[in-house]
Specification:
By secondary structure, this protein is of the alpha/beta class. The protein has one domain (9-323): Purple Acid Phosphatase, chain A, domain 2. It has 8 helices and 13 strands. The protein has a 7-stranded mixed sheet, with helices on one face. It has a 6-stranded mixed sheet with strand order 5-6-7-8-10-9, with no helix packed on it. Helix 1 links the parallel strand 2 (23-28) and strand 3 (65-68). Helix 1 runs parallel beside helix 2 (78-88).
Length: 328
């Protein structure tokens, strides 16, 4: 397990986006709040405490806006959404949320998962997709977890619907300084020899190529996602994908994104003690083989940080899989 100072570690320093007035965004992803489950490598019986600790830490950091980037609940259970509402009531900053694959209806559900419209009523009153402007930044939030034809209900992969792609094309023509957020990963963190195979394919957008073309055409500098539980950056052209760590699992951290006239600094901040992080680390190591790989990737990330350092002009100085250039 890699130790992290209480103030966190700088995950990346990016040349863009910039803004004249300093803006701070906080990102939490993959809380997986579970009130009636225990165990697994996610330690479901700890998820309420992890979420509460993260919200307390973020409140102290005084962000301008908080983005919950999907998987708020274990599996979309109504009672877990209710508990999330109680937890987020302690948050002082304004927030917006987008659903993850575990927040929407799946064919395997043994309960009535609330529809996406209910999720939007609670956490995205304008309905998704939406733009939330703060300072000089336009946070563009899309829903990658569900599409109108229901074709994602039998899997955990994501997609942006045709209507969202059309909306994104139009919206990016009028916003001045966009940062785009959705739950699933636009760019893979590993090479194509793996990303086409299950379970690695699960993390990506089915229509990632089409989404990337829209973002690239409009020179979007930053995309934020979650889902993978592995903090990472991946670059393609002038775009950087930032993957947030899991709130509920090792490394038990969230992101603070500080944007000013000099660029963007991304800090990974722990919200658990060293003993808690060790418990979560060991639970993942005792889990399925894929989780062992996650632990290795996470520890490599923490050791190599910052993964990108535009201020030092050394982006390619010590390559890691999280900092690789993606060929679209």
């Amino acid at each position: 397990m890699v130790p992290i100072d209480a103030d966190g570690i700088v995950l990346a320093r990016l040349a863009r986006p910039t803004t004249e007035r300093p803006v701070r965004l906080a990102v939490l992803s993959d809380l997986h709040v579970a009130t009636r489950a225990r165990g697994t490598d996610r330690l479901f019986h700890r998820t309420e405490d992890r979420a509460a600790a993260a919200i307390e830490s973020i409140t102290a950091a005084d962000p301008d806006l908080v983005c919950f980037d999907g998987d708020l609940t274990k599996d979309g259970e109504p009672w877990n959404f209710d508990r999330f509402d109680e937890l987020v009531a302690e948050l002082e900053a304004p927030f917006v949320a987008t659903p993850g694959n575990h927040d929407v209806s799946k064919v395997s559900d043994e309960h009535d998962t609330p529809p996406v419209s209910s999720f939007e009523d609670r956490y995205a009153p304008e309905s998704l997709p939406l733009v939330r402007s703060v300072g000089g930044i336009d946070l563009v939030v899309c829903n990658s977890a569900a599409v109108p034809d229901g074709s994602l209900e039998g899997e955990h992969r994501g997609a942006l619907s045709r209507a969202q792609l059309e909306w994104l094309e139009t919206t990016l023509q009028v916003v001045s300084n966009p940062v785009v957020a959705f739950h699933h990963n636009l760019l893979p963190i590993l090479g194509s020899d793996l990303v086409e195979n299950s379970p690695w394919q699960t993390f990506s957008l089915r229509n990632g190529g089409a989404v990337f073309e829209v973002l690239d055409r409009h020179d979007v500098p930053l995309v934020i996602s979650g889902h993978h539980h592995v903090p990472a950056t991946v670059s393609a052209g002038s775009l950087t994908q930032l993957i947030a760590p899991a709130t509920c699992a090792y490394p038990l951290a969230h992101l603070l994104i500080d944007i000013d006239a000099q660029g963007t600094t991304v800090t990974l901040v722990p919200h658990a003690t060293a003993a808690d992080r060790r418990e979560s680390h060991d639970a993942m190591c005792a889990g399925p083989p894929l989780r062992h790989t996650f632990v290795r990737l996470i520890d490599e990330t923490l050791t190599a940080a910052p993964l990108v350092d535009a201020t030092a002009d050394r982006t390619e100085s010590s390559p890691t899989v999280r900092r690789r250039q993606f060929q679209s």
